[in-house]
Specification:
Elements: H1 2-20, H2 26-45, H3 57-62, H4 64-84, H5 86-119, H6 126-144, H7 162-189, H8 191-194, H9 197-208, H10 219-222, H11 224-243, H12 248-267, H13 272-292, H14 298-307, H15 309-312, E1 313-316, E2 321-324
Antiparallel strand pairs: 1-2
């Protein structure tokens, strides 16, 4: 229920906030800003928590260049490329936005997989991947063609025109209509899914996830809704993971300190070079998460199975022993 509310509330409320925020009282504006800092920037920095978890150390050591090395290398490369050419940097940012839509959608797919396990409806059909990919395409189109979310200081790319935005909106609507048709067909051909209330709920939320991107206007109503929903989802998942870790409080303190310092700094960064360096930090988050949540790795699968045993196991008899269900997808798989 917490994941459902964390997803639905920003998608429903923030578009209205974006339309009326000039009339909103100052405490409300401050509250929305604080939530944005926590979810938008804080969830990225919560990835540092894995470095404090002893159970994840074998995974980090086995992938030190990807998980640790990229944290230094990718932001540095993004900063250097921005100094060399802001035009190249702008094109890279457009590609990053498309990747970000994919990242959001993979987390949605992972949550759907968790819901399927919890509802005991069996593995998700392959058609669900196609549905999620169509929503991801709609999100990517909307974000790449949304000039208001490009950093100030980058040159305007040639495709950021009203005509392209209109064509992109039509293409995104086409993707969402196709996804809706596939959902309808799926529910007809897979009756077991109709018996999974959580699967139905998150299938609907996944489909609606990028709908705010079809609006026009400020980022508060076109981009923040699903970016904030994604961050809130991730923080809930990380909260469960860290709470059941032997170093949970230390990891939480590490995350809180990094988010508290970096979030406000990045919101008003002193120059385009630092903005793009932070984009590199987000890319590191993509790269690290894709490995840290890869359940094909038996070490990761064992950790996730233990910490989410309320999903993957069913109490058996008075002894409290559990019959595990093997998870196959993680919330942040790339």
């Amino acid at each position: 229920m917490a994941l459902a509310l964390a997803t639905a509330i920003p998608l429903v409320v923030l578009p209205f906030y974006g339309l009326s925020h000039w009339l909103a009282p100052t405490p409300l504006l401050a509250s929305v800003f604080a939530v944005w800092i926590l979810t938008g920037y804080g969830h990225v920095m919560s990835t540092v928590w894995f470095g404090a978890d002893p159970d994840y150390r074998p995974v980090v050591r086995a992938n030190r260049w990807r998980i640790l090395g990229s944290l230094a290398a990718v932001p540095a490369v993004m900063g250097v490329l921005t100094v060399a050419s802001t035009t190249v940097s702008a094109w890279l940012y457009a590609g990053f936005l498309a990747w970000q839509a994919h990242h959001y959608s993979r987390q949605n797919y992972g949550i759907l997989s968790f819901a399927a396990v919890n509802d005991r409806v069996g593995p998700l059909p392959k058609q669900v991947s196609l549905i999620i990919n169509l929503t991801s395409a709609a999100g990517a189109i909307g974000m790449v063609l949304m000039p208001t979310i490009y950093p100030v200081g980058l040159p305007r790319l040639p495709f950021l025109t009203p005509e392209a935005a209109t064509a992109g909106r039509v293409a995104a609507i086409g993707c969402l209509v196709a996804a809706a048709v596939l959902i309808g067909r799926l529910l007809i051909t897979e009756p077991r899914l109709r018996g999974g209330p959580r699967v139905l709920l998150f299938l609907g939320l996944s489909w609606a996830f990028f709908l705010p991107g079809l609006l026009s206007g400020a980022p508060q109503m076109t981009f923040w809704p699903y970016a904030m929903a994604h961050g809130a989802q991730y923080l809930i998942i990380m909260g469960i993971t860290s709470r059941r870790s032997p170093r949970g409080w230390f990891g939480f303190a590490l995350f809180a300190a990094s988010a508290g310092v970096l979030g406000p700094l990045v919101f008003h960064p002193p120059g385009i070079v630092l903005i793009q360096a932070y984009t590199g930090v987000i890319i590191w988050h993509f790269l690290a998460d894709a490995r840290l949540w890869r359940l094909r790795d038996p070490t990761v699968r064992a950790i996730v199975s233990r910490r989410f045993d309320f999903l993957f196991g069913t109490p058996q008899g008075a002894t409290g022993s559990r019959q595990p269900a093997s998870p196959t997808v993680a919330p942040a798989v790339q």
